[in-house]
Amino acid sequence: MKALITGASSGIGREIAKVLAARGCELVLCSRDGEKLRALAAELPVPARVVALDLSREEKCRALYEATKDDGVDILVNNAGFGVYGSFCDAPLETQLNLVDLNVRAAQTLMFLFLRDFRARGNGRVLNVSSVAGFFAGPKMAAYYASKNYLTRLSEAVAEELRRERSPVSISVLCPGPVKTGFNARAGVKFNLRSADARATAVAAVEGMFAGKRLIVPAFGYRALVFLSRFLPRGLVTRIVFSLQAKKGAARG
Fold first, then answer.
1. From which domain of life does this come (predicted)?
2. Would you give the end-to-end CA distance of the chain in angstroms?
């Protein structure tokens, strides 16, 4: 097996790399930070190729595919992404559009390119790292929540297309709650809810992917939250999310 992991230099991506390596999976590690990737590769017990690229640019996504399409990649992990905190009209537009480019366009581009190969070969797995945010509207982090809604629904839709084709290729989407990573620091917020461990999240993600699960929500509490929210008025749910996001801003100071 060989897996390509984007956003592999830290957080969930880094831990997924370690979990897959422990299973004997060779790796291609991608992020902007080549130094961190090389340090990670040196720790792993399997061959790991390092590709340092900024995937917020479509041509770099295509370059990544061209550089690795003949390497025998049969697992794609789309993990690269970030969030930005603030009211929609106050957060810098350039930053919001960069978020869309990385969280949505890069993931879709790589999924499209590699999935065609997987489909033609009749084997392969895609793991898209989304968020429990992908089930809600998110005032104060509107672009981030919207990007995760897009990725979650795209994953579910394409997974159903493959099922109807009776394709053995699987698509899984990981939707964790808050996880202890550098995400909040980059987004400029402090989240007061209990955060999950990145390692435990990665283990759940990899196990779910190999089990062929379409939707992976690691914690029971968040699975219950997603289920129960279906029975509440959407406006009420959005107001609750706004209150939670406002607390992030207060914690930020």
1. Bacteria
2. 46
**pTM of the predicted model over 0.85:** yes
Domain tally, the chain: 1
Range of the structural domain that residue 183 is part of: 2-252
Both structure tokens of 202: 């990665």
Q: Which two tokens stand for residue 67?
A: 């550089």
- Which residue in 144, 145, 150, 222 is the catalytic one? 144
Query: How many CA within 13 A on the CB side of residue 213?
Result: 16
Task: Give, for all 253 residues of the chain, the pLDDT tens digit.
Answer: 999 999 999 999 999 999 999 999 999 999 999 999 999 999 999 999 999 999 999 999 999 999 999 999 999 999 999 999 999 999 999 999 999 999 999 999 999 999 999 999 999 999 999 999 999 999 999 999 999 999 999 999 999 999 999 999 999 999 999 886 655 555 455 555 556 789 999 999 999 999 999 999 998 888 998 899 989 999 998 998 898 888 765 444 3
Q: What is the CATH number of the domain that holds 20?
A: 3.40.50.720
